[in-house]
Amino acid sequence: MEHVTLHTGHQMPMVGFGTWQITGDQCVTCVRQALDLGYRLIDTARMYENEVEVGKALKASGVDREEIFLTTKVFQPDNSYAGTRRSIDQSLLRLDTDYIDLFLIHEPYDEDRDMVRAMKEALEAGKIRSLGISNYNKELYARFVAECGLVPAVNQVECHVFHQQGALKAAMGETVMQAWSPLTCGQRPVVTDPILTKIGEKYGKTAAQIALKALVQQGIPVVPKTATFSRMQENLDLFDFTLSSEDLAVIQSMDTGKTLFGWY
Q: Whole-angstrom Cα distance, residue 13 to residue 21?
């Protein structure tokens, strides 16, 4: 597994396991399978309503907590100073952990300055190790930094071969851009895309692996989500090849510059 070092000094895996829409016993099973396969970044959120199950899987896995990079997020109605303080403490309880590696504001809020104040207090108390944001575009990112007086460690955003967000990445400096739905969550047929499939044939890889590798190779960590064991294996198997500059340029040309999810 390759890692990126956040400006907080902590290392974050380049490939994580996303848990959106995976709940109940299935979530426990999937997270345990992911950890068994070698995933060490687990991404959840209060919005996903599966923090308890993620916590159970972490405990049952037998993997040392210090080896796991755990991300969760705060969202409305906790978009306030008091709400964020409460959300952090509740997430710690649900996840059954002493600390959260990365705590994100799940989406832009006018109250993010107050939310950051609570997050900074949690950081100082050792409850969280790095703090960041999610779904902030270039303009909102600039406002956040100016108004909050803080450079977030991570901005987790929609990013995939059809919407590569190069301008945002360039504008954020030391903030790491992390990709959610790097395989488009079914909004575009990545796994059967003819361009990606043809490139994949050169490397003995699938179209999905090529789509993920293109981001990772450009320094963009990815958080693909799947409940299928074989896909978990596939999504992690990215580190035994390197895309040529020519192939990477072809993939970069697939960028439409348009969101598939309406966040921006």
A: 22
